[in-house]
Amino acid sequence: MADFASAPQSIGVAGGGLMGRLMAWQLLRRGHRVTVFDAGPASGEQSAAFVAAAMLAPYSEAVTSGAELFAMSRNALAGWKALLQQLGENSAHPVQLNDAGSVVVAHELDRANLSHFSRKLRAAVGDDGNVQSLDRAGIEALEPELPHSFRQGLWLAGEGCLDNRALLVALHDAIVAGGGVWQPNCPVQSVVAGEIQTAQAIEKFDWVLDCRGLGSKPDWPEVRGVRGEILWVEAPEVKLSRPVRLMHPRYHLYITPKPGNLYVVGATEIESESQTPVTVRSELELLSALYSVHSGFAEAHIVNSFARCRPALTNNLPQIRVRDGLIQINGLYRHGYLLAPTVLESALGAFEGQQELAFVTELASFACRAGSHG
Ligand SMILES: Cc1cc2nc3c(=O)[nH]c(=O)nc-3n(C[C@H](O)[C@H](O)[C@H](O)COP(=O)(O)OP(=O)(O)OC[C@H]3O[C@@H](n4cnc5c(N)ncnc54)[C@H](O)[C@@H]3O)c2cc1C
Q1: Same structural domain for residues 297 and 246?
Q2: pLDDT surpassing 50 at residue 299
Q3: Residue nearest to atom 46 of ligand 1 (CA)
Q4: Strands 33-37, 181-183: parallel, antiparallel or unpaired by DSSP?
Q5: Is 180 in the pocket of ligand 1 (CB under 6 A)?
Q6: Are the beta carbons of 362 and 72 closer than 8 angstroms?
Q7: Ligand 1 atom closest to residue 227's alpha carbon, by position in its atom list
């Protein structure tokens, strides 16, 4: 195995979405030479990372994804704070991280949904003080603009969200400033150990990282896409200061505040790899649920709607595969931001030789082992 601490390597990264950017940035910081190839523009518009709400929601996600995911993600906020501090070291525009927790509410008719969510949540995560029941006064203290008809809710401290579009720009800028080469609008045709093939050339590297998300499917057939539709609305008349989730019998809505009076409203989850525009039905459902949370959204402007695929594996957990000359990172599904600090640390650890070279690991078991050591 190469000694990465003392020997700078040439590294080609296929896919400059969330994981590709984070890996490229960190590898540059460690003195390696890095080239990133992305099928889309430098803004990251073609990635799932660009449209994501970028909520860091270990508690909410534990309800559907269970204790394993919770073990991997409970320290997401602390992990991101450390990463953003590094990223902001030389930047005039630090990326905003909102760590004010999140609020979960339900209309009175749907109280059973909230109770069910609350029971499942406590069963999955136990009681670590970050899950607190709210009455009307409690809701009002946190989010005074939510209507009086919401009489019960939950406050999930230890959750947050980040400004992901600013993050993608900051990572791109840090990569270029650090001497990395960025190849935008450059689809990769094939990835093998030590080699990236594009329409123009076959380029050789010491190591290749495959971070193409759903684009990796030709080389990793188990990867599947899970369609998510999401809306961006600009609502100067609404002041919500943290993500708000609405429990509903048919769909779960979230509203995530972003800088500039922008709210990201989502998201559908459909077993489909179609990336065609958002359907009328999805838009109607998202918007009517949105309006039911805060009437101020009536005058909001819909500034964008997106449909993208979350890259997932069969068990909906991430996986890092390492062979000599090739590292594949995939399966971040609906948890890319939530899991990124853990996946990044594990992938860098694998890269730097803390793991055997020829191994296939499910991050869940890796993270649980790491967690059991405190
Ligand atoms: C609607 C929606 C909402 C979400 N909300 C959240 C959330 O609130 N919290 C959370 O933690 N996660 C969320 N996610 C999930 C998160 O966005 C993903 O898990 C994460 O982006 C996966 O990172 P990735 O780097 O593996 O893939 P991506 O971010 O999709 O990046 C893949 C990159 O590879 C490039 N690429 C693809 N094919 C090729 C090719 N052939 N050649 C070159 N480049 C290629 C793409 O252009 C892209 O830039 C959401 C996702 C969606 C779709």
Answers
A1: yes
A2: yes
A3: 47
A4: parallel
A5: no
A6: no
A7: 53
> Are 364 and 322 in the same domain?
yes
Task: Name the CA radius of gyration of the chain, rounded.
Answer: 21
Instruction: Say if residue 209 is in the same domain as residue 276.
Output: no
Residues 246, 148 within the same domain: yes
Q: Which atom of ligand 1 is nearest to the CA of 37?
A: 43
The 3-state secondary structure of 201-266, one letter per residue: CEEECCEEEECCHHHHCCCCCCCEEEEEEEEEEECCCCCCCCCEEEECCCCCEEEEEECCCEEEEE
The CATH number of residue 281's host domain is 3.30.9.10
State which of 332, 335, 339, 343 you would mutate to test the pocket of ligand 1, scoring each by most atoms of that ligand within 8 A of its C-beta.
Answer: 332
53 ligand 1 Cβ < 6 A: yes
Range of the domain at 22: 10-52+164-223+314-372
Quote the pTM value. 0.94
Tell the residue nearest (CA) to atom 23 of ligand 1: 18
- Same domain? For 213 and 338 the reply is yes
Q: Are residues 231 and 303 in the same domain?
A: yes
Q: What is the pLDDT of residues 64-104, one digit of tens each?
A: 988 889 999 999 999 999 999 999 987 777 899 999 999 99
Ligand 1: which of 334, 335, 346, 363 to mutate, judged by most atoms within 8 Å of the beta carbon? 334
Residues 228 and 280 in one domain: yes
